[in-house]
């Protein structure tokens, strides 16, 4: 091929170019490489020496040799490694030894094309510029590009790089074309005729990709075209574990403890690996230890010399620190490990519960206790530890610049800013946790406080612990100076929420005056520069996105905007020559992560998390510590004892299944109850000076306050009964009824007169009115005005409780209740009486965090923010009502938790909400600010989220119910004095029974005060309308639910309310009478024999030829006469007169009846059923009709809820996304959002069916003792289940079967999961089988075996949730069934949710609820079996 003159000149110049300068030769085995000089030393690795791998290690050397081979061949490398820092450090070590510059991209779900190609920025003057991504910089400048976390990237993103990998080509948004260097050498010019710019891909550009293998680790599988462009290298997990572990000093033997644990960790790794198909099935249930386990063990042992043997509890704490996922691992895995520790000579291993208790008193890990912390330099301190047998250890640790809080703590004190911790007593447990945190800090690790594994426990003092840690090490807040923009040191709380992207964790966009765009550091990055302590609150909610911080946490390095990079170490010369692209992470910078507890541990406590942080298991308080805190709150000793007796029982009854529905009842909630008891009925408002005997009031009030805290009224029926039993067991007495007089305003106080009770003293509650001078503008414009409010006892009591919480105790509150019970009006009335300004904000499914903070507008190319009602309320100290809080996404509601709990919030525009001003831009929380969240009660039929778990215990909870009958009657009498009092009394009674029907599950709508008020208003305004007409306003929603209409009619009749027709009949009758009287007089009225008639698709009126017509004669139709059955084909119904109907002769009537009987018999023969069988099945069906409707509605709603859509961001069309307005200004395309199905988090399964097994007891005793109805109720329950699942529109969402056990065996099949009964005949056969088996069964019991088999069978199914619900009437004592047998069977597989309903003799076993808390139910009345099973299924499935 001939060369043009320009090509020839380029070739000559290239040959004359001086050779690349070398810094020396690198020899790896048989390869020698001349190491070139770097053109930009700031882009070289600046890792700490301890973070680079040992090149003398044979395994590291072998990996580096492979990488050099591929590098010299011009090939890209793919490192397949378990989660952890080894693979990244291997890549950086390789770049270091060949002196190669590098770029790195940490992949996560928010990475898009912009982050892999070019971003856009607007410079001053409005000029748009393109900014190269790290990937493009690497291509242009010949650097190594490290892509870490390939498995986390969204599908379809990585192919953006396919052409770059294959051909070294990429088209950039600024019009530049990167092409292969060989192709570029053949060009005559760098631009073509159209002006396109071509630049060569640098010959030294290489890619090193890193990913965890999928499976077994969570993530997206590799795209085959992407995978094919790499050369793979599997990183041996055992070698990685050893390589990350610093070797011991020369000529030093490993301590015996470390040596044995090291062997155990390596053996566990080997045992977890599948080497063939057989071992994949039979591999160990014990998951492998995290990659950093040996590294942590080596550092711990080196700094804190241990004894050769630890006690069982100490050993358990150490093992869980190294492998925190064992907290939620199956008991089988823990048993395996326990056996191995004994075989390894480590001694017995305590249980995970032992590790939660304060083993060793105030000791931290390895038996050491923190004794003192003293200042050494401005940035360091000396931490002193002691061991009872090993003596003293003193270590130099990083510290902040603030004065160190004295340590050891005084006997009683409180960390600064501890608003919700009124009393701080440093217990041995607390000192032990603090010691462990300081140990992790001394070893250079960031810590993660892992909450207790038990679903409900006492407080673990997480927030107090973080504050105390910061203050004893000089990270406390310093007085604010106007010139200080944050300064060095200090503590920073970053409250995380689900919407946060990986990039937002590190930096955020900003628009300057004039419209230019830039980036500014996040709070985490600012803290890294300044050496602050960062509290990452709620790290669990952001899931795998937390991995974006892995490099910063592990290596103190991270990439920022514009080529900036934080590094751990660099010389002054390197920093000076980097043009501000290199910055140093301050040595005092530390992170402490805590969890929100809104997600199960297994959903976020991953191997990646364990490798990033030093896990510290947060142990809950013991009873003595909790007692001291409650006594310090002013609560009388007897009340404290009873409160804790109940709390311990209640917490023990919690399981993973019901804790999502129930309140946890932690220490913070008990402190709130204690403070409320201290106030009692008689503690006065400011300046009153009254007092009373607190103990008497406490005893009266305790049950009511605890019930309110637990929202007892809204628990499922079965759980509510269990809690009531726990109250009785703990000796918490039930209080008597009381009447609450109307509040009055006296002398600048709102006075709630003392209630009238059946006995005991009664005292008024006085609450100061709002001081107008504190917010004159708010008083003028934001105090609610209500011209009508009808006072009643129940709502007055609630108003008083709210006033005490908001005004006297300074609490934020959440009000939950059914629709129409007056939540808004009660709060508005209270604000009106107090003269309290209030703001209002309503949430919905599309509410975002940004919308809660401010509204966004674009003016003249500049994004402007206007503060929201929430920010106004914070700044001016107003009450803000957050309405429909349960309708917003859970991550949006989560911000109220940090706001209420810590008075802290970080806004997306960089401002912060804080309790005190620390920076000029901070928004200070006004002391009068209060949050009032309004929401509907949890669970079906209200379509809200389970937001109570997200809120935790930061809010005082109040349940708002319909008034009692007397209060309701009084209210309605005030509203409509003209209506007869007797009628009002009957209506109130009827509505009271309607609500009881909803609570018992026989009705599926919670009829409220709102409906009753509207009914009374209608009757008062239109007295000529009948009661039936007025009731249609409420009941017409249910016209197509005949079973509901029948119950409504029965309740009305019971209360003497005569309503001739309800439902469809009433609607048709009213239409005929009131709107127009449509009468049809046929010309021919002669009657013949009843007949079917001919069928067609047309509408017919009159006549006797066509079937399905109206107003005819003889034929099957509607509105006519003489036919033998009704048949409707649509259209208007022409109704013949009653006179004509009455003229039908008797023989024609009898003929019609006979034809109807024949038709019914024909249908039964088709079903192969006799009339008696049909009647029997109908009787079973009728018995549970109401439960069936309720269960159907719930299951149908859940199936639909799984398909609810969410906002999917970074779309190229749809609605403009407010959070990406800046990107829109710069011209990015992905600035829209659309409704779509939410993608599951990494590690979460795709939406699959729920697998359910129902196990019935058909033993001989079921027949022998059937006089109590146990067999009949079981059959009714079976019919309820079969009919409900058959009616579902999304049958594929539930895979269910029914089995039975008897004395003959544990596995009698009733319904096959693959062939559920589809018609009545098949369902009747199931019922017949159930009725016959107990007749012929031998004596004996297989309850335990049936549950075990059910759990095993269900767990084997590929589902997204698994359930087994069993019924037994076994006499456990007679058949020698022990509590541990039942417990073992039900806990056989932790992923399977189990429940056991004990009836008959089984219900007499009082140990059942205690042995299997939250899973065992005693049902004394067999009539309750359908109710209980429906309630259990509802609770378990709707989690």
TrEMBL record:
Ranges of compositional bias, category Basic and acidic residues: 1077-1102
Superkingdom of origin: Eukaryota
Chain intervals for the UniProt region annotation (Disordered): 1077-1121
Annotated Gene Ontology cellular component terms: cytoplasm
Gene3D superfamilies per UniProt: P-loop containing nucleotide triphosphate hydrolases
Record Pfam families: AAA_5
Residue intervals of the ATPase dynein-related AAA domain: 77-230, 812-942
GO MF term (any one): ATP hydrolysis activity
Compositionally biased spans, kind Gly residues: 1105-1121
Protein's name according to its UniProt entry: AAA domain-containing protein
Species for this entry: Mycena alexandri
């Amino acid at each position: 091929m001939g060369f043009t003159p320009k090509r020839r000149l380029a070739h000559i110049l290239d040959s004359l170019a001086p050779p690349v300068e070398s810094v020396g030769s690198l020899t790896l085995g048989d390869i020698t490489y001349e190491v070139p000089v770097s053109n930009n030393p700031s882009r070289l690795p600046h890792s700490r020496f301890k973070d680079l791998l040992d090149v003398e290690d044979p395994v590291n050397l072998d990996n580096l040799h492979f990488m050099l081979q591929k590098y010299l061949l011009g090939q890209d490398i793919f490192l397949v490694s378990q989660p952890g820092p080894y693979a990244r450090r291997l890549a950086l070590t390789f770049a270091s030894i060949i002196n190669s510059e590098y770029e790195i991209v940490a992949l996560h779900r928010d990475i898009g094309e912009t982050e892999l190609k070019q971003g856009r920025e607007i410079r001053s003057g409005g000029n748009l510029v393109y900014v190269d991504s790290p990937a493009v910089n690497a291509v242009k400048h010949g650097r190594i590009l490290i892509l870490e976390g390939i498995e986390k990237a969204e599908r379809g993103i990585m192919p953006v790089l396919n052409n770059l990998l294959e051909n070294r080509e990429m088209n950039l948004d600024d019009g530049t074309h990167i092409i292969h260097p060989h192709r570029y050498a053949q060009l005559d010019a760098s631009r073509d005729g159209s002006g396109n710019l071509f630049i060569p891909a640098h010959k030294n550009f290489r890619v090193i990709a890193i990913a965890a293998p999928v499976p077994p680790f969570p993530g997206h599988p590799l795209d085959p075209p992407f995978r094919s462009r790499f050369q793979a290298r599997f990183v041996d997990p055992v070698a990685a574990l050893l390589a990350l572990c610093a070797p011991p000093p020369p000529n030093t033997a490993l301590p015996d403890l470390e040596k044995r644990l090291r062997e155990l960790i390596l053996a566990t790794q080997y045992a977890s690996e599948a080497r063939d198909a057989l071992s994949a099935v039979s591999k160990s249930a014990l998951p492998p230890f995290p990659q950093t386990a040996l590294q942590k063990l080596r550092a711990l042992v080196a700094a804190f010399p241990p004894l050769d043997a630890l006690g069982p509890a100490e050993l358990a704490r150490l093992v869980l620190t190294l492998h925190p996922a064992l907290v939620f691992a199956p008991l089988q895995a823990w048993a395996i490990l326990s056996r191995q520790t004994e075989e390894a000579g480590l001694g017995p291993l305590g249980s995970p519960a032992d590790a939660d208790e304060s083993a060793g008193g105030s000791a931290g890990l390895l038996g050491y206790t923190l004794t003192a912390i003293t200042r050494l330099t401005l940035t360091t301190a000396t931490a002193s530890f002691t061991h009872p047998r090993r003596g003293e250890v003193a270590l130099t640790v990083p510290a902040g610049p603030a004065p160190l809080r004295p340590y050891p703590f005084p006997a009683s004190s409180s960390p600064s800013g501890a608003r919700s911790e009124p009393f701080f007593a440093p217990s041995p447990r607390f000192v032990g946790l603090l010691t462990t945190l300081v140990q992790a800090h001394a070893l250079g690790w960031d810590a993660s406080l892992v909450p207790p594994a038990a679903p409900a426990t006492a407080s673990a003092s997480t927030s107090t612990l973080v504050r105390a840690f910061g203050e004893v090490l000089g990270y406390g807040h310093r007085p604010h100076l106007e010139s200080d923009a944050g300064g060095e040191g200090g503590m920073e709380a970053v409250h995380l929420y689900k919407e946060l992207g990986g990039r937002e964790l590190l930096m955020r966009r900003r628009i300057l005056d004039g419209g230019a765009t830039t980036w500014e550091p996040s709070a985490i990055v600012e803290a890294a520069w300044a050496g602050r302590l960062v509290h990452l609150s709620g790290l669990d909610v952001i899931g795998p996105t937390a991995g974006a911080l892995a490099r910063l946490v592990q290596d103190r390095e991270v990439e920022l905007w514009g080529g900036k990079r934080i590094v751990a170490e660099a010389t002054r010369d390197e920093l000076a020559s980097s043009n501000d692209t290199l910055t140093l992470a301050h040595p005092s910078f530390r992170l402490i992560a805590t969890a929100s507890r809104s997600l199960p541990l297994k959903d976020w406590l991953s191997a990646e998390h364990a490798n990033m942080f030093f896990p510290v298991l947060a142990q809950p308080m013991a009873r003595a510590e909790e007692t001291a805190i409650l006594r310090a709150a002013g609560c009388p000793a007897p009340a404290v004892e009873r409160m804790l007796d109940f709390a311990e029982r209640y917490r023990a009854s919690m399981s993973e299944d019901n804790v999502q529905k129930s309140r946890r009842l932690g220490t913070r909630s008990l402190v709130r109850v204690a403070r409320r008891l201290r106030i009692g009925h008689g503690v006065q408002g400011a300046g009153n000076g009254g007092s009373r005997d607190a103990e008497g009031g406490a005893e009266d009030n305790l049950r009511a306050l605890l019930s309110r805290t637990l929202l007892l009224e809204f628990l499922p029926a079965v759980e509510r009964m269990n809690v009531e039993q726990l109250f009785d067991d703990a000796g918490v007495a039930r209080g008597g009824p009381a009447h609450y007089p109307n509040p009055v305003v006296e002398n600048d106080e709102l006075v709630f007169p003392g209630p009238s009770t059946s006995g005991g003293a009664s005292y008024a509650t006085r609450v100061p009115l709002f001081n107008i001078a504190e917010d004159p503008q708010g008083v003028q414009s934001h105090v609610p005005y209500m011209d009508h409010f009808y006072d009643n006892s129940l709502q007055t009591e609630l108003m008083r409780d709210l006033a005490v919480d908001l005004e006297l105790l300074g609490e934020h509150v959440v009000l939950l209740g059914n629709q129409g019970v007056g939540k808004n009006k009660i709060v508005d009335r209270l604000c009106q009486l107090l003269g309290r300004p209030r703001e209002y904000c309503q949430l919905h499914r599309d509410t975002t965090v940004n919308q809660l903070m401010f509204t966004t507008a674009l003016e003249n190319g500049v994004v402007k923010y206007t503060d929201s009602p929430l920010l106004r309320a914070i700044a001016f100290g107003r009450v803000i009502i957050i309405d429909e809080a349960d309708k917003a996404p859970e991550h949006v509601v989560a911000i109220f938790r940090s706001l209420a709990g810590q008075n802290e919030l970080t806004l997306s525009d960089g401002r912060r909400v804080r309790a005190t001003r620390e920076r000029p831009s901070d928004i200070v929380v006004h002391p009068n600010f209060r949050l009032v969240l309004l929401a509907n009660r949890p669970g079906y039929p209200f379509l809200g989220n389970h937001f109570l778990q997200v809120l935790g215990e930061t809010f005082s909870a109040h349940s708002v119910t319909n008034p009692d009958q007397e209060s309701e009657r009084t209210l309605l009498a005030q509203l409509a004095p003209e209506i007869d009092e007797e009628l009002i009394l009957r209506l109130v009674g009827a509505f009271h029974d309607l609500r009881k029907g909803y609570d018992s599950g026989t009705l599926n709508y919670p009829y409220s005060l709102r409906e009753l008020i509207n009914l009374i208003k209608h009757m008062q305004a239109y007295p000529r309308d009948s009661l039936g007409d007025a009731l249609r306003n409420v009941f017409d929603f249910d016209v197509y639910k005949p079973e509901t209409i029948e119950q409504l009619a029965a309740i009305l009749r019971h209360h003497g309310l005569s309503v001739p027709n309800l439902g469809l009949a009433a609607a048709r009758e009213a239409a005929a009478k009131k709107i127009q009287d449509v009468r049809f007089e046929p010309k021919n009225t002669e009657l013949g024999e009843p007949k079917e008639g001919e069928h067609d698709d047309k509408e017919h009126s009159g006549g006797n030829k066509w079937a399905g017509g109206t107003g005819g004669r003889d034929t099957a139709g509607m509105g006519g006469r003489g036919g033998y059955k009704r048949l409707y084909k649509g259209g208007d119904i022409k109704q013949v007169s009653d006179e004509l109907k009455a003229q039908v002769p008797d023989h024609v009537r009898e003929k019609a009846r006979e034809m109807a009987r024949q038709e019914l018999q024909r249908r039964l023969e088709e079903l192969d059923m006799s009339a008696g069988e049909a009647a029997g099945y109908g009787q079973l069906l009728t018995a549970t009709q109401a439960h069936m409707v309720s269960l159907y509605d719930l299951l149908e709603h859940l199936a639909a809820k799984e398909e609810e859509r969410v906002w999917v961001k970074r779309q190229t069309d749809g609605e403009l996304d407010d959070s990406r307005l800046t990107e829109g200004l710069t011209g990015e395309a992905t600035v829209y959002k659309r409704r779509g199905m939410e993608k599951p988090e990494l590690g979460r399964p795709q939406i699959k069916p729920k697998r359910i097994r129902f196990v019935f007891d058909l033993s001989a005793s079921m027949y022998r003792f059937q006089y109590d109805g146990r067999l009949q109720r079981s059959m009714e329950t079976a019919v309820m289940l079969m009919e409900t699942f058959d009616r579902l529109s999304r049958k594929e969402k539930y895979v269910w079967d029914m089995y039975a056990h008897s004395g003959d065996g544990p596995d009698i099949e009733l319904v096959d999961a693959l062939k559920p009964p589809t018609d009545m005949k098949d369902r009747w056969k199931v019922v017949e089988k159930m009725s016959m088996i107990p007749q012929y069964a031998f004596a004996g019991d297989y309850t335990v075996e049936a549950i075990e088999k059910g759990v095993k069978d269900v767990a084997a199914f590929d589902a997204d949730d698994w359930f087994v619900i069993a019924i037994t009437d076994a006499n456990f004592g007679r058949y020698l069934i022990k509590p541990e047998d039942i417990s073992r069977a039900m806990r056989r597989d932790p992923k399977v949710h189990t429940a056991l309903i004990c009836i008959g003799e089984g219900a007499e076993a009082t140990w059942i609820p205690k042995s299997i808390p939250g899973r065992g139910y005693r049902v004394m009345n067999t009539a309750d079996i359908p109710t209980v099973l429906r309630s259990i299924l509802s609770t378990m499935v709707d989690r």
